Write the structure tokens for this entry.
Amino acid sequence: MFGLKKKDKPQIDKEQLELIKNAQRRIKQKKRLYIHFVIFLIGAVFLIIANTVLGIGKNTMFFGINWFVYAILAWLFLFLYHFVNVFITSKFMGKAWEEQQLAKLVNQQKIRIEKLKQQIEKEDLPIAKSEVFKQQNSKVVNNLTIIVAAGENNEIGKDNGLIWHLSDDLKRFKALTSGHHIIMGRKTFESFPKPLPNRTHIVISRQANYKAPEGVIVVNSLEDAILKAKKDTQPFIIGGGEIYKQALPFASKIELTRVHSNFDADTFFPEIDKTLWKETANIFHTKDANHEFEFSFLTFERK
Ligand SMILES: NC(=O)c1ccc[n+]([C@@H]2O[C@H](COP(=O)([O-])OP(=O)(O)OC[C@H]3O[C@@H](n4cnc5c(N)ncnc54)[C@H](OP(=O)(O)O)[C@@H]3O)[C@@H](O)[C@H]2O)c1
């Protein structure tokens, strides 16, 4: 008596329920049509009797035909309309038909979405991935500018000193860098007699205890140097050869003074890859009493 199991309820699934409901609806529709038919027959007989036996509207005729014929025909038309509704419209375009059409539409949409997904995976995803990859791997720092003077063969120095004296180039260097951070290698820093006025010096050295005058910032890597200058709207990399080479991938601009001659040198600027950089300015300067060589101020911006 305690182990009595609950009786399993008979399960009717949704589809079966729908079929039953539909059959009940069809029966009701057909019943109504049948009643309409019977009423129509009785009504037609009544109209005939009313006219022929009772003499109602006996003289009312249209085009030589008694009015009751028109009335019966009109009713017959209504009955036919009802008939068509039950056996054609409701059967073929009823609720089931609507659901079928909806299912077809949903299916078509699913196929379209699937195709779009495949297209995105095939075409757009690799592009998006490569953009993300580029962004993640790009070292470029906004407005980080390399400033350099180099001969025709990219010569920049010898015996830790410059190879020429071009006063207009020095003036331009001063005008561009004043008020900004200037990042340099330890050897370039040591080539100056003293720190340059109106500029924040950042010196890069691997030495743990490199001593520099007050106000000069010493760091142990190029990345740290760039970080120290991050609030500057335009920090400059001012050399020398080792630092230029390492800083080139980070720079977004190069201010190059191309000295139009060949020189004996031991330090060089790296080749500018024209596929990555585009020349945006080129101002030529002639030789004169203060300038032993012809030179050009070139500006390159990263493409
Ligand atoms: N023409 C121009 O526009 C121009 C401009 C600037 C300089 N220059 C010339 O370039 C020459 C100097 O260039 P350079 O290549 O010999 O020396 P540099 O680049 O000025 O300095 C090299 C030094 O920087 C430090 N350093 C380099 N990479 C580092 C890193 N990743 N991490 C930490 N420290 C690092 C090291 O210092 P430690 O040895 O202390 O570790 C290294 O010895 C000179 O002749 C100078 O006149 C020319």
